[in-house]
Amino acid sequence: MNRRIFMKRLAAASAFSAAASMFPGIIFAEEQNSNVPDGPISWKKSPCRFCGVGCGLLIGLANGKAVAVKGDPKSPVNKGLCCVKGYHSVMSLYGEDRLTKPLVRKNGRMVETSMEEALDLVADKMKETIAKYGKDSVSLYGSGQWTIPDGYVASKLMKGGIGTNNLEANARLCMASAVTGFISSFGMDEPMGCYDDIDHANVFVLWGNNMAEMHPVLFSRILDNRLKRGNVKVIDLATRTTRTSVAADRSILFKPQGDLAIANAICYEIIQNGWVNRKFVESHCTFKQGKSNIGYGLEDKFKFKDEAKNISFEEFKHFLNDYKPENVEDLTGVSAKDIKYLASLFGDPNKKVMSLWCMGANQHTRGTWINNLIYNIHLLTGKISEPGNGPFSLTGQPSACGTVREVGTLTHKLPHGVVANEKDRKMAAEIWQVPVENIPAKPSYHTVEMFRALDRGDIRFMWIQVTNPLVTMPKLNRYKAATEKEDRFIVVSDVYPTPTTEIADVILPSAMWIEREGMYGNSERRTQHFEQMLEPPGEAMSDTWQLIEVGRRLGYEKLFPWSQETHIEEIWKEYTRFHKGKKHGMASYEVLKDQPGVQWPFVDGKETKWRFNGKYDPACKDGGFDFYGKPEGKAWIWVRPYEAPPESPDNDFPFWLNTGRVLEHWHTGSMTRRVPVLHRAVPHSYVELNPDDATKLNIRTGDKVKLVSRRGEIVLPASVNQRAQPTRGQVFVPFFDEALLINQLTLDAFCPISKQPDYKKCAVRVEKV
């Protein structure tokens, strides 16, 4: 072995050692080391393919394949570190069952065809459906895994070309409440802070977020901060005990839905103890009251519109009288002492506090409200928009922020603004060079309602890209049946067979990640470019180019004038016209190619790390705080009451069901289950039970357990005292396993404002098999 090979293998071994020390219990496969080739390796930068943290990677390339991964030390996100998924990310390219040829359903069977024929068929079917049922009978359902160019082309095709707002992305299922929370409180989407806050804060309050498993690299930064500074506290506020709870300084468990009352009780304590930053509140905040008793979206064609009435500080204070800590102990399961402790952390003027949350807050029938309430706490204390002080909404998917929230791949959105705003429609029409009348002024179907419309027959054609709704949709049995109805045509673009490809009439093989060029946008407003490093297998094609090819076949050649060699650069230059200016300026294509990611607003060659604070944000007036998303430049503090969930345990279904992810697998597992070491680590799903409940039901780890809800049933192996522990009366099931579809049991209730479903709370019965 020569010195060069030795050094390469040493680097690989050190990477695995770092990851193993970060995640004790994970055994790294020898194949990771043994597969490092003896020849030269070239290294190119890329963001990670998986979660919304947006870690920077260096991809090792040799002999036309990706053979190694290491963290990019130049990336300010992860500073050279990766999680277990990131270190094994390139292996997800090489599963044996990779889709490489288009497949078309003929006489009930899927048969191989050419990409040209498949794209012709997709376009012809769209034309036929529009001619027969109208333009709102076709739909496109994408993902926060779409690249930014994917999403931009999707929006231009559907809204500028076809003229329908039937465009949604699966980020509706994970980030919509964060969006509506930001907009209703601040008038603009996306966090005002950044990951640098982690290095400055003294207190971290995690609102229902198992950060050690879901965002492990960021959690490692928190632990590193605590280790170095010593005066740092981590508070795990959750409904189950997890690895995050064990690492936290204090674990506070609450009853499902109790977070609403806890947040209001914290606000009550802040006011009663004189901890309000009065100067900040009087200068930069206004108080609002919205509707209550707003429903749960369970019925088809559910309609809701919020209101915002002005109220005084005294009226807000009076509202909080119902939320004295002693009054909400039974409701929340949290002692008054613990609530007062939490309030004291926020109220201490000498402590910098960062709140972090993800699905626990967002997948909530009052998801917008709990986002508003977390902001209320930070606004009352003035702990916002400065280093170490801020509320920070974490993201699940690699480009849910960049492709869905920034580009606007939702029914009500445009790349800058909303379809209901005439000025925004005119901007889009001018840039796209289409008549403004092409762009409908009214939103059509959000994700749940889009699949309901497919069930009803209002939608007859659906094109699904980069997502797996036949695993992820709540109340899954209804929506699976909808896709199988006669006179429904389903196109699926993906890289591996999934339960969603099983119901497709056409399957288009997609190029994956570094097999094509693109950009992702992460949680901290960081846009990250990656170049094409590999040739896609067979006839696989990027999702961007699939959309362009079909758009041209539909007669919209003028909308897509780009060449295949330069289309990503040309798309980026056109897209960034929507975001010019100090409030949302984006870096140029050339800068993105050179840097390991650039945060927006990018103004005069400089990133804006903290928005709404004139010390850091050039868009602010007069150098002070300026919440410029609102017309008056003030943030809104909302009255948002506690309301019970739509379904709670009872005699027939006495347990709460909570669903989520695990460290080793990402979302539905269609990629990570093709990585041998990750699959071996967690080969199947399971149901976690509280040890007391397990003893009462005579259930031990490995026993078969049947879960039954009002919508379905499933049999899984039990897990007791292993990875995590639910509270009594609660069970937890991860959703990555396509052979054990837990969403057959979940409820399709959603937040009426964000339209995001609640996957964390429904009632089930537990039976030993």
Helix segment count? 27
The separation of the N and C termini measures 56 Å
The CATH topology of the largest domain is what? Dimethylsulfoxide Reductase, domain 2
Strand content: 15-25%
Biggest sheet details: 7 strands, mixed
Uncertain runs are: 6-30
| CATH H level, superfamily name of the largest domain | Dimethylsulfoxide Reductase, domain 2
| Mean pLDDT level | 94
Shape field: globular
Give the name of the CATH architecture of the largest domain.
3-Layer(aba) Sandwich
- Fraction in helix: 25-40%
Structural domain tally: 4
Task: List the SSEs and their pairings.
Layout: H1 3-22, H2 31-34, E1 42-47, E2 56-62, E3 65-71, H3 84-87, E4 103-106, E5 109-112, H4 115-133, E6 138-142, H5 148-162, E7 167-169, H6 176-186, H7 197-200, E8 203-207, H8 211-214, H9 216-229, E9 233-238, E10 240-241, H10 243-247, E11 250-253, H11 259-272, H12 278-284, E12 285-289, E13 309-311, H13 313-319, H14 329-332, H15 336-347, E14 353-357, H16 359-362, H17 367-381, E15 390-393, H18 400-406, E16 413-414, E17 417-418, H19 422-432, H20 447-456, E18 461-465, H21 469-472, H22 476-483, E19 489-494, E20 506-509, E21 518-521, E22 526-530, H23 543-553, H24 567-575, H25 589-594, E23 598-599, E24 602-603, E25 606-607, E26 635-639, E27 655-660, H26 676-681, E28 687-689, H27 691-696, E29 704-708, E30 713-720, E31 725-726, E32 730-734, E33 762-768
Parallel strand pairs: 6-7, 6-18, 8-9, 8-14, 9-11, 12-26, 14-15, 18-19, 19-20, 27-32, 28-30
Antiparallel strand pairs: 1-2, 2-3, 4-5, 4-20, 10-31, 12-13, 16-17, 21-22, 22-23, 24-25, 27-33, 28-32, 29-30, 29-33
Main location: secreted
Pfam family, one: Molydop_binding
Catalytic activity: 2 Fe(II)-[cytochrome] + nitrate + 2 H(+) = 2 Fe(III)-[cytochrome] + nitrite + H2O
